[in-house]
Backbone:
């Protein structure tokens, strides 16, 4: 016990391991906890690694940056990469904006370096390598379903000029992917402290994937080292976003703690981390909710951002004496209050309209709750098997009263099996309105081998992405583009705040064929051929003639049949009846035989001899 | 009423039927073809009608048979066969005869011609039948050389540097140094390049041992060949067992495993250490082997196994027993990571033990082995333990925690040499080597390695091609497309070229070509397009087409019998008719 206390004292007196001078990298870990007005708890982990010499040349000597990821990025000439694996849908209207937004399923988009040859091939190799690295089926991404958006997904890295060569960008989404322990384990392996020390020890697969919304994200981009931006630093952000529904976790109480959310407490910070902090968003503490935080936070920070004030309770783990296990808990007092949730400035939803399996329509509804107009960019990526009709595109606001005209649009029609349909436009949403974007499509009939194993489940259409610049930071928690860690979002007032929203994914039931048809066809074709060919052959090569019964040569079957008949009837009547006829017949030719002479008889005998 | 009418009709039909049977009853059975009689009987006209009819029918049957059997079946066979480019089976078999024999020259130099001749006789007879014909040593003797430089040299190392003789691949010079006693007491000293210095008292047996066990190593060559050809009968020797399997390039991954960074602050500039200490070796090997160097730090990984505490009077130390060393590697390998590259990786791991079990040594139950700090896993890599000073535990001091690069890198260098395939030289009495050069490899060692690796490449390529040919014979639904066919041809041609170069004394080019031949054969054999039709074996093809062909073929084949009898009876009858007309 004393030894343990001594060790912890030593631990606490340890200052940051300043190795960034030698290897040029540093590591930060942060956890943000927020009680959402709907009663859910939003936890956001961010592990940031900054590597000084990482981006410039192939540097194979890694220290805190994971070696396997660095190899992949250098081998395939990747400048910037964003991968997210998500289970669940983020409810913007109830929960506000997340720090990092992700659509359900898997999403991967990457910018390749200037001068890269054969971007498609590198894109395929990159998705295959990442699929192996994270045990996710990203190998289903192929260049035929990866568009290059023209206005959305601008590079977030250090060069950031919007006139980048858009052919170096590839975007792809796999809505059907699920995220589970298999993905979490290699994700944790990339961290310097693995899952043994620091905030990553809170990531237990059993608790994490039990949440309403769970999302893993890996974001790599080059970042400016300082204000002048002469040098760049390679930034790796590994994020885990979770939204817990406290009722599901049990005990029917609104109190939450580390043990309830993650199953364990925190043993200590990661020794390699330069900073290890927990932020609890207490803005709603006095107003909507009323809870006590324990233990007491290290400090309280007021963040004034864009006119909105947020109060953060900060726990600095590196400066905390941890005796047993560290766990933050919130106990509610007072009655349960259900508050009115005011939705954020922009939120969107998307659904399919139409009936039958011939035509349909996609409707995207965007709500603008601001008193001023807001410009948005909408990006829709529709697979090739749902051919869309651009002339049916209708953008209306306020229930059809106002027709909006986009001031920039980009429509790339798809080609069967080689290119998806891409629709992008910039439009100004009128204040306090609901804008509907309606587009018609056909259901197409695919080739037999293109259906997945469970064809009647349907086909997924990826989420639409809405990019916009918000005028204020209500419900907004994003990290500014020039900052790396979450702490850089404190007091970070800017002119506008960029945000990306993702809508729901769609499930479309395409008309499915009868999969037993090939067998049916084979049977039918063979039967028809047999039935048609047999008589045809018989007709052309044989001729039906009446048999002389006396000269009839009885085959085996005829013999058997006669025996059977005689056995069954057991009467001689049939024999007597049948015999006169042949005898009559025989008589007449014999008369004429005599007329023809012996030749005929000899011929007959010959024939009889031959046929016997 | 209706019934009656029907009955009338029925009766009428019966009467007609009687009439017809009366008419035709005279005629014989159905299929007898009778073209014979054109006699003046009334029946002949009816017969002649039928004869023409028979001809037409038979011609129709013959045309069906022709169309189906002669045109249809070959067309179907051709269109459903598996695409195969022509594979030169003959030339693959020929490769077996083209066995490579490595030539080597040994020149014996001494001022006394008698000594030269006696050594020549002894060595050539002793080494004449080594290695079962894999290596062919050619002996020469010379007495006319400038011996002044030899006599006036200050040391053997200086003599070595002088480069008295041309340093060509596979050429060994045995130089007698008069008065070698002033340099060393040993009889034979092996130089760094391709010269062996021996004294006047050196025995021929010693020279023979040096040549056969260290320099020429015919046994190792023979074993390398035998293991690939007959793996069940032969087993690897120590050196062969350590050598990494052949590949195009190798990756070397340096991993620093440091499980307790909060207690000890360790710093090491790996990039510089590799450049300073390993750079020479890697550069020396670069014409024949290409390496990629990578490094990483693993901070939260521990080695498995509980070391025992050993209490000695001055200090306590911990010992890791030799028996649990194999169990350390498997859990460690999970954490080392596998990269995206396709080349085999040589893993070199440096472990810094946690403070509680520090200092850590590896002990063996065999008394001949002292507690050591490193161990090697054949064909995988090596692990080394570094014990920093105990005083550092618990203090995180910025300054005093740099690692000793030289000792660590020397151990890694030795491990790397063993993994690449350089052997540990056994002790021979009275023989010593000059200290290693900066690159760490002696020229004659490189020759020997090139010979062994070239043999491995050529024999492997041959066996791979033969296996592919055998597979093609046995499994009928393997696809050989153009690229695979090209690769097979490339492997065969490059093998022959390599053997030619080797026999012309150009070992370096021969080695490079042998590597290309090996890689081409491997690429051809493991091409994924070979199995494109794996799930469509021949019997499935038949199963799909039989319901179509069977009902068609049965009448056609049955009609063959009729055609045969018509054909031959037709010829008999015409011959009868001819006889009758004559």
Residues:
């Amino acid at each position: 016990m004393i030894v343990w206390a001594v060790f912890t004292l030593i631990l606490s007196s340890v200052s940051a391991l300043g190795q960034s001078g030698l290897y040029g990298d540093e590591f930060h870990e942060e956890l943000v906890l927020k009680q959402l007005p709907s009663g859910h708890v939003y936890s956001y982990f961010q592990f940031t690694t900054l590597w000084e010499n990482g981006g410039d040349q192939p540097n194979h000597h890694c220290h805190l940056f994971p070696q396997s990821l660095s190899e992949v990025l250098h081998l395939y000439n990747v400048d910037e990469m964003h991968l997210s694996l998500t289970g669940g849908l983020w409810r913007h209207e109830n929960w506000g904006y997340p720090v990092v937004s992700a659509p359900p399923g898997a999403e991967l988009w990457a910018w390749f370096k200037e001068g890269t040859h054969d971007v498609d091939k590198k894109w395929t190799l990159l998705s295959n390598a990442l699929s192996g690295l994270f045990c996710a089926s990203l190998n289903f991404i192929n260049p035929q379903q990866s568009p290059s958006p023209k206005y959305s997904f601008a590079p977030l890295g250090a060069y950031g000029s919007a006139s980048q060569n858009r052919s170096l960008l590839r975007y792809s989404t796999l809505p059907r992917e699920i995220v589970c322990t298999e993905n979490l384990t290699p994700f944790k392996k990339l961290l310097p402290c693995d899952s043994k020390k620091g905030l990553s020890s809170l990531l237990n697969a059993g608790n994490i994937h039990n949440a309403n919304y769970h999302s893993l994200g890996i974001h790599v981009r080059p970042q400016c080292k300082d204000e002048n931006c002469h040098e760049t630093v390679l930034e790796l952000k590994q994020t885990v976003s979770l939204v817990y529904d406290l009722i599901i976790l049990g005990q029917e109480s609104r109190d939450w703690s580390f043990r309830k959310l993650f199953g364990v407490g925190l043993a200590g910070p990661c020794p390699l981390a330069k900073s290890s902090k927990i932020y609890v968003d207490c803005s709603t503490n006095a107003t909507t909710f009323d809870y006590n935080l324990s233990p007491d936070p290290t400090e309280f920070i007021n963040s004034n951002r864009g006119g909105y004030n947020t109060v953060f309770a900060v726990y600095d783990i590196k400066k905390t004496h941890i005796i047993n296990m560290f766990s933050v808990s919130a106990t509610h007092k007072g009655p349960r209050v259900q508050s009115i949730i005011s939705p954020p400035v922009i939120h969107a939803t998307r659904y399919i309209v139409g009936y039958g399996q011939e035509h349909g329509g996609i409707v995207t509804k965007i709500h603008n709750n601001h008193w001023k107009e807001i410009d948005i960019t909408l990006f829709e990526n529709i697979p090739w098997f749902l051919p869309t009709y651009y002339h049916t595109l209708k953008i209306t606001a306020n229930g059809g009263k106002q027709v909006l005209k986009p001031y920039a649009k980009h429509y790339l029609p798809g080609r069967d099996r080689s290119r998806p349909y891409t629709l992008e436009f910039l439009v100004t949403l009128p204040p306090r309105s609901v804008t509907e974007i309606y587009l018609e499509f056909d259901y197409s009939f695919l080739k037999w081998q293109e259906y997945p194993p469970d064809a009647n489940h349907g086909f997924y259409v990826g989420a639409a992405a809405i990019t916009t610049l918000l005028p204020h930071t209500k419900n907004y928690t994003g990290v500014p583009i020039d900052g790396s860690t979450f702490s850089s979002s404190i007091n970070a007032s800017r002119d506008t705040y960029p945000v990306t929203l993702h809508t729901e994914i769609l499930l479309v039931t395409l008309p499915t064929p009868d999969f037993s048809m090939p067998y049916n066809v084979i049977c039918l074709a063979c039967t028809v051929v047999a039935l048609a060919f047999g008589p045809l052959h018989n007709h052309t090569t044989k001729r039906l003639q009446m048999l002389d019964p006396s000269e009839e040569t009885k085959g085996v079957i005829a013999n058997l049949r006669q025996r059977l008949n005689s056995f069954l009837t057991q009467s001689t009547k049939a024999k007597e009846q049948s015999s006169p006829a042949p005898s009559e017949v025989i008589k007449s030719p014999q008369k004429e035989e005599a007329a023809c002479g012996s030749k005929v008889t000899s011929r007959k005998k010959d024939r009889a001899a031959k046929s016997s | 009423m209706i019934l009656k009418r029907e009955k009338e009709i029925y009766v009428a039909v019966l009467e007609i039927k009687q009439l017809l049977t009366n008419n035709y009853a005279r005629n014989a059975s159905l299929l007898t073809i009778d073209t014979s009689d054109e006699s003046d009987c009334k029946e002949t006209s009816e017969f002649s009608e039928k004869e023409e009819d028979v001809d037409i029918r038979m011609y129709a049957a013959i045309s069906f048979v022709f169309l189906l059997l002669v045109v249809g079946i070959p067309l179907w066979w051709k269109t459903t066969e598996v695409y195969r480019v022509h594979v030169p089976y003959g030339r693959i078999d020929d490769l077996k005869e083209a066995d490579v024999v490595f030539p080597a020259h040994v020149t014996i130099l001494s001022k006394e011609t008698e000594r030269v001749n006696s050594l020549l006789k002894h060595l050539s007879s002793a080494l004449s039948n080594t290695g079962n014909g894999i290596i062919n040593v050619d002996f020469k003797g010379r007495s006319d050389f400038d011996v002044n430089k030899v006599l006036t040299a200050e040391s053997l190392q200086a003599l070595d540097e002088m480069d008295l003789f041309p340093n060509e691949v596979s050429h060994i010079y045995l130089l007698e140094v008069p008065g070698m006693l002033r340099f060393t007491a040993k009889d034979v000293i092996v130089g760094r390049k391709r010269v062996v210095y021996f004294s006047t008292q050196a025995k021929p047996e010693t020279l023979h041992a040096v040549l056969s066990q260290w320099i020429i190593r015919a046994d190792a060559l023979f074993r390398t060949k035998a293991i690939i050809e007959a793996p069940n009968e032969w087993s690897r020797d120590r050196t062969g067992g350590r050598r990494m399997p052949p590949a195009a390039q190798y990756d070397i991954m340096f991993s620093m495993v440091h499980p307790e960074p909060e207690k000890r602050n360790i710093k090491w500039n790996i990039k510089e250490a590799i450049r300073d200490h390993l750079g020479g070796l890697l550069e020396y090997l670069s014409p024949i082997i290409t390496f990629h160097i990578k490094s990483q730090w693993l901070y939260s990984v521990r080695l498995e196994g509980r070391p025992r505490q050993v209490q000695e009077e001055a200090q306590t130390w911990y010992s890791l027993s030799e028996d649990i060393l194999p169990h350390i590697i498997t859990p460690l390998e999970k954490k080392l990571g596998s990269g995206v590259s396709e080349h085999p990786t040589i893993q070199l791991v440096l472990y810094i033990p946690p403070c509680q079990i520090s200092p850590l040594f590896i002990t063996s139950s065999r008394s001949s082995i002292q507690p050591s700090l490193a161990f090697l896993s054949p064909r995988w890599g090596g692990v080394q333990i570094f014990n920093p000073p105990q005083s550092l535990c618990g203090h995180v001091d910025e300054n005093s925690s740099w690692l000793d690069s030289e000792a660590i890198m020397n151990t890694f260098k030795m491990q790397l040499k063993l993994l690449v395939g350089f052997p540990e030289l056994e002790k021979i009495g009275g023989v010593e080597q000059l200290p290693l050069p900066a690159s760490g490899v002696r020229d004659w060692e490189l020759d020997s390695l090139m010979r062994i690796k070239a043999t491995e490449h050529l024999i492997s390529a041959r066996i791979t091609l033969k296996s592919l040919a055998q597979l093609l014979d046995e499994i009928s639904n393997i696809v050989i497309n153009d690229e695979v066919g090209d690769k097979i041809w490339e492997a065969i041609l490059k093998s022959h070229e390599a053997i030619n170069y080797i026999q012309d004394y150009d070992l370096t080019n021969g080695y490079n070509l042998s590597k290309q031949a090996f890689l081409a054969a491997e690429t051809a054999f493991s091409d994924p397009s070979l199995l494109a039709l794996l799930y469509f074996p021949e019997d499935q093809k038949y199963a799909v087409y039989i319901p179509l062909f069977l009902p068609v073929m049965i009448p056609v084949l049955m009609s063959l019998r009729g055609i045969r009898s018509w054909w031959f009876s037709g010829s008999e009858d015409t011959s009868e008719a001819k006889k009758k007309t004559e």
Notes: The longest helix of chain B spans residues 538-581. Residues 28-48 of chain B have pLDDT under 50 and may be disordered. Residues 102-224+428-442 of chain B form a domain with the Rossmann fold fold (CATH 3.40.50). Chain B touches chain A through 64 residues (CB under 8 Å).
